[in-house]
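re the bet — no i am not wrong, look at it urself. input seq straight from the record:
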Amino acid sequence: MGQEGPDSGDQGLRLALAAAERRRERWAGDLHDRALQELGALRILLEAADREGAISPAARQGAMDHVDRAIHAIQGLITEIRPSVLDELGVGPAIESLARRAREVDQVDVEVDVDVGDDAQGGPARLGFEVEATIYRVIEEATNNAITHGRASRVSINVRRATETVELVVTDDGSGFDPASAHRSFGLVGMRERVALAGGQLELDSAPGNGTRVRAEVPLS
């Protein structure tokens, strides 16, 4: 009868996180292939009905506006669930996309400075599935917390690759909080677990009225 090793629990959590990312990828694909295609087909039908005079211009425009809003909302949801750019281009462009959404939707000034090195072709280097997912999700959570809870007007995201690690720092000018009273927050726990399972460390510096600084160091191995 087998015996579990001391890190079997961590391995189980790591596999669960990886499986969750794969599910996110599948859900995003399903939303794109089903919901968006159906809405696109409905848009074509409305245009055809308008050309044939089967619908009034006002009704047609109202319906098209509803369809366009639904398409835009689903596109945003797909990106939140699993940004395709993370899989296709890597963590740098994915963070830029996240920052662009925050600027457009939340009207927050988000500065991004990412340097993960170059690959053999001169493009941004890829860091591996687990490392990239960890970096992106921690930055996503820290940014969302800054905007939603801290009411920040400015967020700074910095990512630097060293020889064996990647350092990420997210700072904001929000309301801040007392880390001792918020240590059980689901978002903070999730960030710490992700970084710990990747073999890294996370530091949190905040105080009421002084904004928040989240720093994590994730090994590349």
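see?? The chain is about 55% helix and 15% strand. told u. also The first helix runs from residue 8 to 51. so pay up
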